[in-house]
Design a protein that fits this description.
Length: about 500
C-alpha cells in the first residue's frame, strides 16, 4: 500500500508500546515540555505510540500511572494492566530490553556521555558499544569505528534522523558541537533494510532541545601542553642513514574549548528553543627535519534547535548547525644545512586553511490517528573541502625543478604543495546534499507496517590541477650518452633534463 525505495534511517525518535484494557484511553505526556498525546487501547488489548521524541514521559490509563524514559531509536514497554491477574511491579534504574525489535543497539544519554572518561568525540563514544572497535588507522584520520569487522567506509551517520554521511569517500560526516548532543545511539547489527546506504553500523545522534523550564550554562575544557607527556625521538637503525626515524619530542599541542548554551520555552507547552555557541583556541607546534609549523584554530561554531507543537496532533522541528573550520599557520623553512631544530627557526610564511559549512534540517510529524503516524523530513548539507591560501600556494606559478641529487631548484614551495589548482575553478571544492523523505507508520493490532519515499541528491565538485608552474623538470646524468634508448643523444657523463606534464580537469558528479 505504501511504496518503499532505498531508505535512510529515521532513528531520531522512540516509541511506547504495551497492553491495557480494551477501549481504555491512554494519555502520554512529556514531562519536559508538556506535549500530550492520547490513544485508545485496541480490541486485542494492545497500544503503540510511535515517533516520540527521546525524553521523560508520564503514561496514564486505567487508573495506573507510569513514569518512563524513551530512548533514541528504541521502544519502551509499559503494561497498564490489560488482564485481571494481580501483579507486583518492581521498578529500578536498570536498562530495559526492547522486545519490539531484533536489532542490536546501544544508547548513551547526555548524562552518561558527560560522565564517561573518554575523548569528547562521537567516535570515541561509539567504540564503547559491543562489537565496535577503532578502525584502520590510515582511513578517516584513524578515529572512525569499525562494526563487526566491516570497513570504516561502510558506516552511516545521522543527526536528528537526517543522513549526514559524506558520499565523496564515506570517511567523513557533518559534525556538531559536542555540547549539543542529547543522546547517541549505536546500531551495531540486526537493523533492517530501511537503514540503507550502510553495511557496517549506524551512529545516530539527537540534539538537545528546549523544555518548559529555561536552563542554561557554560563549560570550559582545557588540555594544556604542560600536562602532556613528551614524544620520543628515534634514530634510524640503518647505520648509513644518520637521520631520525621519528622526531616528535618537541611537538606541542594545547586545546581550549568554551561553550555557552541555553534553552527554554518561547511559548509554554508549544514553542521551544535550544542553542549552543562553541568557541575554540587550539594550537600546535610541529617540528620536522628541514622545517617546522605552528597553527592556531579559533573558528566558532554552534547549533540552534527549534520545536513547535501547535497541538497534540502536529509537531514541527528545525535544526541549524554550523561546523566550519579555519586554521592559521606559520611555516618556518630552515636555512640550507640546518636540520632537526627544537624551536621555530628560519624564514616564516603565513596562511590559512579553511573548510566545513553548515547543516539545515526541517521535520514535520503528524499523529493523524491512534494507529497512523506520518512524518516528513527535508535537509541540506553544504561542506567545503579544505582550501589553502597564503605562503604554501604563493609560488605555484613556479615550475617544479629538481637537480640530479633531487635537491629543490627554483622558487616553488617544496615540500608543501606540488600541484597548482585550476585557476578557472570555483574557490572551494564542495560537497552538497539535498534530501527529503516521507515516512508512514501504521499499527494494526500487534503488527506494524512502515513505508515511505526517500529522495537524495549528492553533488561533489573537484577542481583540476597540474604540476606547479605546469611542468615537472628533473635533471639527470647519462653515463653512456644514451637517453631513453637513443645512443649518443648527449656526450657520455653529460646532464640532460626530463620534463613531465600531468593535468586533470575540473568537474563534478551527482548521485
Amino acid at each position: 500500500m505504501l511504496i518503499s525505495s532505498v531508505a535512510i534511517a529515521q532513528s531520531s525518535e522512540g516509541s511506547i508500546y504495551g497492553r491495557g484494557k480494551p477501549g481504555d484511553k491512554i494519555t502520554i505526556t512529556s514531562i519536559e515540555n508538556g506535549a500530550t498525546r492520547q490513544i485508545t487501547v485496541d480490541a486485542n488489548g494492545t497500544y503503540t505510540a510511535a515517533k516520540l521524541q527521546p525524553g521523560s514521559y508520564r503514561v496514564e490509563g486505567g487508573g495506573i500511572t507510569r513514569d518512563v524514559n524513551v530512548a533514541i531509536g528504541s521502544g519502551t514497554a509499559v503494561d497498564l494492566g490489560g488482564d485481571t491477574v494481580a501483579r507486583v511491579v518492581v521498578q529500578g534504574s536498570h536498562s530495559l530490553i526492547d522486545t519490539s525489535t531484533a536489532e542490536t543497539s546501544t544508547v548513551f544519554t547526555a548524562d552518561q556521555i558527560a560522565a564517561l572518561p573518554v575523548a569528547r568525540d562521537i567516535n570515541a563514544i561509539a567504540i564503547l558499544a559491543p562489537g565496535v572497535v577503532r578502525g584502520d588507522p590510515d582511513l578517516g584520520g584513524g578515529s572512525l569505528p569499525s562494526f563487526a569487522g566491516a570497513s570504516v567506509a561502510e558506516n552511516g551517520y545521522y543527526i536528528n534522523g537526517f543522513d549526514v554521511t559524506n558520499i565523496r569517500n564515506f570517511l567523513s560526516y557533518s559534525n556538531l558541537p559536542f555540547e549539543a548532543i542529547g543522546a547517541q545511539q549505536v546500531k551495531s547489527g540486526g537493523y533492517g533494510a530501511e537503514y540503507g546506504r550502510s553495511l557496517g553500523g549506524v551512529i545516530s545522534i539527537v540534539t538537545k532541545r528546549g523544555t518548559n523550564t529555561w536552563k542554561g550554562g557554560a563549560s570550559v575544557y582545557f588540555s594544556p601542553e604542560s600536562l602532556q607527556a613528551s614524544g620520543q625521538n628515534l634514530l634510524d637503525l640503518d647505520p648509513d642513514n644518520a637521520k631520525y626515524k621519528v622526531f616528535r619530542k618537541y611537538n606541542k599541542q594545547t586545546d581550549l574549548n568554551a561553550n555557552v548554551y541555553a534553552g527554554g520555552p518561547i511559548i509554554k507547552d508549544k514553542l521551544f528553543v535550544f542553542g549552543v555557541l562553541e568557541g575554540r583556541r587550539d594550537t600546535t607546534d610541529t617540528f620536522l627535519q628541514n622545517r617546522s609549523t605552528e597553527t592556531k584554530s579559533t573558528q566558532p561554531n554552534g547549533m540552534i534547535k527549534v520545536d513547535f507543537t501547535p497541538n497534540e496532533t502536529h509537531r514541527l522541528e528545525f535544526t541549524g548547525i554550523s561546523n566550519k573550520s579555519k586554521t592559521d599557520y606559520i611555516d618556518y623553512v630552515h636555512a640550507e644545512g640546518q636540520e632537526w631544530a627544537s624551536s621555530h627557526v628560519g624564514t616564516p610564511g603565513t596562511g590559512t586553511i579553511e573548510s566545513g559549512g553548515h547543516t539545515l534540517i526541517g521535520k514535520y510529524t503528524g499523529y493523524l490517528t491512534d494507529n497512523f503516524t506520518l512524518s516528513a523530513l527535508v535537509g541540506a548539507v553544504d561542506d567545503k573541502q579544505p582550501r589553502t591560501t597564503g605562503y604554501r600556494v604563493a609560488a605555484l606559478d613556479c615550475p617544479t625543478v629538481y637537480d640530479v641529487d633531487v635537491n629543490k631548484l627554483g622558487c616553488w614551495n617544496e615540500p608543501f604543495l606540488l600541484s597548482a589548482r585550476d585557476p578557472n575553478a570555483p574557490k572551494f571544492d564542495e560537497d552538497k546534499r539535498r534530501a527529503f523523505r516521507i515516512d508512514a507508520d501504521w499499527t494494526i493490532g500487534s503488527h506494524s507496517l512502515r513505508g515511505g519515499v526517500d529522495s537524495q541528491k549528492f553533488t561533489s565538485r573537484q577542481a583540476g590541477d597540474a604540476f606547479s608552474g605546469g611542468i615537472y623538470w628533473r635533471y639527470l646524468r647519462s653515463t653512456t650518452g644514451a637517453i631513453n634508448g637513443v645512443a649518443n643523444a648527449v656526450a657520455p657523463g653529460s646532464l640532460y633534463v626530463r620534463g613531465r606534464t600531468v593535468t586533470s580537469t575540473t568537474g563534478e558528479f551527482e548521485v
